Amino acid sequence: MSYPADAPTYIPKDQFVKYLDSYIERFDIQPKYNTAIESCTHDEGKDCWISLACDVTTSVVVRYKSKFLVVASGENSAANIPVIPGLHDFTGEAIHSSLYKSGAAYSGKNALVVGCGNSGMEIAYDLASHGANTSIVVRSPVHVMTKEIIRLGMTLVQHTPVNIVDDFLVRMSNFVFGDLSRHGIVKPKAGPLLLKEKTGRSAVIDVGTVGLIKKGIIKVHGNISKINGNVVEFEDKKESSFDVIVFATGYKSMANTWLKNGESMLNNDGLPKKEFPNHWKGANGLYCAGLARRGLAGIAIDAKNIASDILSTYNTHRFEMN
């Protein structure tokens, strides 16, 4: 189902929610809200999946029986915070980015953001804009783009080889932002589109953070070595004290905590064993959508493959019954 013809290029939150509501109504989908999955197990004897789900408002557990099971709980199910010596004894406030609301509460405080993806960069900008003395840990190389550059790249790559488009995007980024390596931000060797395709890592869409880094308003650090009280020591042996640390360090899949008998499809990290585009199907009617780190485009491909395969299996079964 397409967006309305008059929809803007970048969909606002409220309009996206309205689209989802319309989608649910059009296809008569019946979501079970406030419900948490507890377990999904394959019954070999009956050749079906038995799923137990709990209504979190009433604590009532409901049992579902199905021929097919689609794992679409996402690769970003639970907050991921790295193991850092001394973190548990940090005397300030340490939170994951999923709990971050606003920089207003940290005005005048020393704040450290760990992670330089889109969330980390935006949080750093918000903290600095609210008067916090802000630093950010850049742990790995990253591409920094504008949304206009990325949109242009996504258009060009439909007609031009990805390596040529990537080279163009990097040149455009250099023209807009200059050499950021002297500010502690290094580009990956792979281009932004190829990197997204191979690893799922997206380029950072700058919201003004780079400008504050260049002005020295936001300080850039390398990885953290250890924490002692409220003092953070970095790998270059420099130390700084902080009142709050925000971990914008991503999420992880939790599928393995509730999916039993899923070893035909998922690895120990709850992600597909097989590489894209052959990752989406397991054994015994088991499928996964949105776990290949390919964004919305990858989810769309997964959904079409799964729907086609289920329909084919259903038609085959019905033919055999006749």
UniProtKB/TrEMBL annotation:
<keyword id="KW-0560">Oxidoreductase</keyword>
<protein>
    <recommendedName>
        <fullName>Flavin-containing monooxygenase</fullName>
        <ecNumber>1.-.-.-</ecNumber>
    </recommendedName>
</protein>
<dbReference type="GO" id="GO:0103075">
    <property type="term" value="F:indole-3-pyruvate monooxygenase activity"/>
</dbReference>
<dbReference type="Pfam" id="PF00743">
    <property type="entry name" value="FMO-like"/>
</dbReference>
<comment type="similarity">
    <text>Belongs to the FMO family.</text>
</comment>
<dbReference type="InterPro" id="IPR020946">
    <property type="entry name" value="Flavin_mOase-like"/>
</dbReference>
<keyword id="KW-0503">Monooxygenase</keyword>
<keyword id="KW-0274">FAD</keyword>
<keyword id="KW-0285">Flavoprotein</keyword>
<dbReference type="InterPro" id="IPR000960">
    <property type="entry name" value="Flavin_mOase"/>
</dbReference>
<dbReference type="InterPro" id="IPR050982">
    <property type="entry name" value="Auxin_biosynth/cation_transpt"/>
</dbReference>
<dbReference type="InterPro" id="IPR036188">
    <property type="entry name" value="FAD/NAD-bd_sf"/>
</dbReference>
